[in-house]
């Protein structure tokens, strides 16, 4: 009895069917069919959310050490642009601490308190005399480097950091709960000291508070835009595969039709979440 010869594996033929449209795969490369595209989508969303969960882990570092590192990072940025390093002022530090405690006590994270008190109110309470002042806020960062980098990526915060008029600063960092979430908040106040305080000259540049580049409630930011681009590509390929299903008349097969609709539905949901988050700002 003659033995049946086993078909020899042909790598070139295999790669051709997986990646190149031809009559061998009904012009639907296996790697680009809706089933595989759905697997890519799930893997991408898992990696995306996993990255966010890690980045949004509450900071457990020593607040005092973090404050020192932030000041060092700020002064590095100033020196690199030819500006004088900021000197820590105890009155500004007290004001920053009072603002920090007020945010935790009243459960808010903003440049204005629920009663409308801004940074100047906390500064004035300490008796600090200035011609101009500024405030930067940050929340949820795991390192001083990432915090300073985020501030420098924001024009309003960067303006405060590099303002040549500011010569003194006060920084407060603390762990607490805001919005039912444990987090680390940083407050930095800037000041240009004077012998006589002029209220009308008080200014603020950091009107937008800064949070980490990624969180589970905001899955898309500038640094994560590549995720959005890849999702768009996958979504487009799923649509193209649907067109090929109709051309090959496989759309009448219930199995193929159900799998395609499931893949398209999942991708649509992912895109909607990303598009909505793209329009959100802190």
From TrEMBL:
Q: Which UniProt keywords apply?
A: Membrane, Transmembrane, Transmembrane helix
Which stretches make up the SCP domain? 73-179
Give the CDD domains listed for this entry.
CAP_bacterial
TM spans (from-to):
34-54, 227-245, 257-279
Q: Which domain of life is it from?
A: Bacteria
Q: By its UniProt entry, which InterPro entries does this protein fall under?
A: CAP_dom (IPR014044), CAP_sf (IPR035940)
Which protein are we looking at?
CAP domain-containing protein
């Amino acid at each position: 009895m003659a033995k049946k010869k086993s078909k020899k594996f042909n790598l070139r033929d295999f790669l051709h069917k997986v990646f190149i449209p031809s009559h061998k795969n009904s012009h639907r490369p296996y790697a680009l069919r809706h089933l595989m595209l759905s697997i890519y989508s799930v893997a991408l969303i898992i990696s995306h959310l996993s990255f966010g969960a890690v980045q949004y882990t509450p900071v457990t570092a020593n607040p005092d050490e973090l404050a020192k590192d932030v000041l060092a990072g700020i002064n590095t940025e100033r020196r690199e642009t030819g500006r004088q390093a900021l000197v820590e002022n105890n009155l500004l530090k007290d004001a920053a601490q009072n603002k920090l405690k007020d945010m935790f006590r009243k459960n808010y994270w903003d440049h204005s308190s629920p009663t409308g008190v801004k940074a100047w109110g906390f500064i004035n309470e300490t008796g600090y005399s200035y011609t101009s002042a500024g405030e930067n806020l940050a929340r949820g960062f795991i390192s001083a480097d990432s915090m300073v980098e985020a501030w420098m990526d924001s024009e309003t915060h960067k303006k405060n950091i590099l303002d040549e008029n500011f010569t003194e600063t006060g920084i407060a960092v603390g762990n607490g709960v805001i919005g039912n979430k444990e987090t680390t908040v940083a407050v930095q106040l800037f000041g240009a000291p004077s012998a006589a305080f002029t209220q009308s000259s008080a200014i603020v540049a950091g009107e937008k508070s800064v949070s980490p580049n990624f969180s589970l409630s905001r899955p898309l930011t500038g640094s994560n835009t590549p995720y959005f681009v890849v999702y768009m590509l996958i979504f487009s390929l799923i649509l193209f595969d649907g067109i090929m299903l109709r051309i090959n008349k496989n759309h009448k097969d219930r199995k193929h039709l159900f799998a395609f609709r499931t893949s398209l539905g999942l991708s649509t949901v992912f895109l909607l979440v990303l598009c909505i988050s793209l329009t959100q700002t802190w």
